[in-house]
Design a protein that fits this description.
The chain is an alpha+beta fold. It is built from eleven helices and 26 strands. An eight-stranded mixed beta sheet has the order 6-7-5-15-16-17-14-22, sandwiched between helices. It has a six-stranded mixed beta sheet with strand order 9-2-1-13-24-23, covered by helices on one side. Helix 1 packs parallel to helix 6 and helix 1 (about 15-25) packs across helix 9. The termini are far apart. Bound molecules: flavin-adenine dinucleotide. Flavin-adenine dinucleotide binds near residues 12, 224 and 382.
């Protein structure tokens, strides 16, 4: 199938930018117009943060293979490789026989296979002491259950030394500059208010900006991440929610002390802790999260049952800069720090944020036509694990548009694959439970002049 001549991409996160580069490179005659609310790196986009993990340990071997391919591309990229820190990533759990153990065992198998001929790249942890000493060094004596006032949670695991983290903000800036260098890629920084349709049909003819401008195109690619549900009806296949992230300032001495630590993640408690980077330690939790419910006009233009639909829509640092993570989030982050990095347990956070994401029921991405719309392709549903695929995801979107995508991926990333599913596939494990309504639990930022 031919690619259309004029294409609008809504969103300059990893899905949008990577797709613009793949289209520009493969189809020089195609005109690509990327539209975002802000110039990249977009301050509240899911793709922009101090760090993102680049790992290939997946329960699903399909993602593991794609992630290993992506990692190789990042390491061989003269620009991106400068932002990649190969510090290793530890996957830990509490040692109980449950779904986390299953994810741990299957992830370790894919890691061992991908590190073939390099068994030294996998370090096994058989005890809480092994886990904690990987952070602090062999002389460190971990806290006992008596000192913690509970059983230990970080008990068993392994570290994959081939993984690492990337500076996601600097990388997105570099990707934007790369996309801008193509003469057939144009950027506009303005919010899209709606997709515009030929009168009386579900056939898109372009997009309308909030300033009223109509931008015509043959195809609209919706890559608007957690905001996508306002532009197209995604109920049942994608939902937006946020998870908590916090940063501690660390001293030079602490930075030195923890410089050899790996990203340390606990499947059972949902925690991800990063080694010190630019004077900070970042911690996040893959919690059940927070939602922000809004009633909006149904974005489908014709034949709708409800004129109004209810969605969760991002409430971020750009509109609510004083937001501070909820108390339950703070307590959970601190309780984990008490065990793994006690000096940070009671230290005030330097800053916090709720990071918005779009989640599919299976945690498989959504790269498909919208079933009720024409000329609209969806490239979203990152489900908290898509960043690492930035060097290849755009090519997959273009392969889908041109009918060349591997049928296994067509099926995995299809709309239909997500219908009626309640259980995710463990690609990006999240804590169980319902997302809480953010307006009920969000707090206001305290004074930021904390002393260490
Ligand atoms: C806390 C957290 C940790 C994560 N950790 C990892 C990790 O370690 N490794 C990993 O691989 N992945 C990770 N992820 C997932 C990864 O970051 C996301 O899957 C990915 O960045 C999503 O990219 P995107 O392009 O879909 O969305 P975004 O980056 O959010 O891009 C969407 C863009 O669309 C724009 N937009 C929205 N609406 C409109 C509109 N109406 N008009 C114009 N523009 C619009 C927005 O401004 C935004 O720039 C994590 C996610 C979170 C939340």
């Amino acid at each position: 199938m031919e690619v259309p001549k004029n294409i609008v991409i809504i969103g300059a996160g990893i899905f949008g930018i990577s797709t613009s580069i793949a289209l520009a490179e493969r189809y020089p005659c195609c005109q690509i117009h990327v539209i975002d609310r802000f110039e990249p790196p977009v301050p509240d986009a899911t793709s922009v943060d101090t760090t993102r993990c680049i790992r290939f340990d997946y329960k699903d071997p399909v993602y593991s293979k794609l992630a290993a391919e992506s990692l190789k591309k990042i390491e061989n990229d003269p620009v991106l490789s400068k932002f990649f820190h190969k510090c290793g990533m530890s996957f830990v759990y509490n040692g109980k026989s449950d779904k986390w153990e299953d994810i741990f065992i299957k992830g370790r198998i894919t890691a061992i296979e991908a590190n073939e001929n390099h068994p030294e790249k996998i370090v096994h942890f058989n005890s809480n002491t092994d886990v904690i000493q990987r952070i602090h060094g062999k002389d460190y004596i971990p806290k006992t259950p008596k000192e913690l006032g509970r059983a230990t949670w970080w008990n068993k695991g392994y570290c994959n030394l081939s993984n690492g983290f990337i500076d996601a903000e600097k990388s997105m800036k570099a990707y934007y500059q790369r996309a801008k260098a193509y003469t057939n890629v144009k950027f506009t920084f303005e919010e899209v208010s709606k997709i515009d349709y030929h009168t009386g049909t579900n056939k898109a003819k372009g997009v309308k900006l909030i300033n009223g401008t109509l931008i015509e195109s043959d195809l609209v690619i919706v890559a608007a991440g957690a905001w996508s549900g306002k532009l197209v009806d995604l109920r049942g296949v994608c939902s937006s929610s946020a998870i908590e992230v916090a940063w501690f300032k660390v001293s030079k001495e602490e930075q030195e002390r923890w410089k050899n630590m790996s990203i340390t993640t606990n499947l059972s408690t949902g925690i991800n802790t990063f080694p010190p980077y630019e004077g900070e330690v970042k911690i996040l939790r893959r919690s059940a999260g927070y939602k922000n419910t809004l009633n909006i006009k149904n974005p489908t233009p014709t034949d709708v049952k409800e004129n109004e639909i209810s969605i969760s829509y991002p409430r971020t640092i750009t509109t609510n800069p004083k937001d501070w993570i909820p108390e339950d989030a703070e307590l959970a982050l601190r309780e984990n720090m008490k065990e793994i990095m006690p000096p940070l347990y009671k230290r005030p956070f330097d800053r916090t944020k709720l990071c918005w994401l779009t989640q599919t029921p299976t945690a498989n991405f959504l790269i498909d036509n919208h079933p009720r719309l024409q000329n609209v392709v969806l490239a979203t549903g990152g489900s908290a694990h898509a960043w690492k695929f930035v060097p290849i995801i755009g090519d997959k979107v273009v392969d889908f548009i041109t009918g060349k995508l591997d049928p296994v991926l067509v099926d995995k990333w299809s709309w239909n694959e997500k219908i009626g599913i309640k259980q995710d596939n463990g690609s990006s494990p999240r804590m169980e439970g319902e997302a809480q309504e953010v307006s009920k639990v969000i707090r206001v930022s305290p004074s930021r002049n904390h002393k260490l």
